[in-house]
C-alpha cells in the first residue's frame, strides 16, 4: 500500500488476513470481525434453518385403572 491519505478514513488491520487496509475497504462479518471485502465470508444457508414444532401430545387420555388382584380359587377352570 502506498502512504496516501484519505480524508475521514483510517488504517485498520484485517482480522482475517492481517493485512493493513483502509476502514472503508473493510466490512463487518456476521461473527463481528472486520475484514477486507475479498476475505469476507457469507453465512451458510443452514445457519438460518429453524426446526418445525412437533406437538407430541395425545388427543385424549384416560388414567390407568387400579390393579385387581385375584386370590387363589377366585377363578376356576370352568370360568375360562
Task: Describe the protein's architecture and organization.
The protein is mostly beta strands. It has no helices and 4 strands. Strands 1-2 form a two-stranded antiparallel sheet.
> Which overall shape is indicated by the principal axes computed on the Cα atoms?
rod-shaped
| Percent in strands | 15-25%
Roughly how many Å is the radius of gyration?
36 Å
Q: Order of strands across the widest beta sheet?
A: 1-2
List the helices and strands and how they pair.
Elements: E1 11-13, E2 20-22, E3 26-28, E4 34-36
What is this entry, summarized?
The protein is mainly β and 80 residues long. The chain has strands at residues 11-13, 20-22, 26-28, 34-36. Strands 1-2 form a two-stranded antiparallel ribbon. A two-stranded antiparallel sheet has the order 3-4.
Structure characteristics:
two-stranded antiparallel sheet; two-stranded antiparallel ribbon; rod-shaped; 80 residues
